[in-house]
Amino acid sequence: MKNAYLTALCLTLMGASKLVALPTVSLSKVAGDSSGALGGGAFYAATQFEGTFTTFCLESGVGMSIGTTYYYDWSNVVQNQNDAISLGSALLIHTHAQGLFGANYAAWGGATGLQQAFWYLENEAGGVNNAFVTYASGVLGAALLSDANGAYGARVLNLWTNSNGTGDRQSQIAYFGVPDTGSTLVLLSLALGTVVCVSRRRQR
């Protein structure tokens, strides 16, 4: 938890600064477990600092290209909409990342079903109220669509075409409880070493 806390802190500080170039990431499809014609996840996100982990799309109407290098930051919201992810989505990405769906994953539609569930819970086109949504609703009840605010270790991986966090591309949901790769102190020193911080606010 200490490493995760330090990583989150330094990335938050970096996100507030446009004088420090954001780290880079490229995405690839998960062979045999991506949503095909839907154009969504599952994807492998190969990041500069947090290693490689699985992500799914949060926005059905924003594009990105497989294999292209983007810049990224972490937050609790889809930055280009200032839209917080739901607690239901947070529960689903956590459960998927921990491998806790078991045989239900395939039975409920695999990556296609899970991607449709994320879009449904985030009120995006292409969303489907399916078995994954039913599962999340059963666990969370009335809190299903409330703001996650980092619950279940879920965060938004915001993708950008420019190193200063502009030119938004498809935002991804990911489980943030990824192993620390030893870069925490490097990132923290970069963030703390910046004298002037310029905040970016985006309107809906």
How would you explain this protein's 3D organization?
The chain is an alpha+beta fold. It has one domain. 29% of the residues lie in helices and 19% in strands. The strands form 2 sheets. Strands 1-2-3-8-7-4 form a 6-stranded antiparallel β-barrel. Strand 5 (77-78) and strand 6 form a beta hairpin. Helix 1 (2-15) runs parallel beside helix 6 (184-192) and helix 2 (87-97) packs across helix 5. The longest helix has 14 residues, at 2-15. It is globular. The termini are far apart. Residues 13-17 and 179-204 have low confidence and may be disordered.
The biggest beta sheet, please? 6 strands, antiparallel, barrel
CA radius of gyration: 16 Å
Report how far apart the termini are: 33 Å
- Helical fraction equals 25-40%
- Widest β-sheet, arrangement of strands: 1-2-3-8-7-4
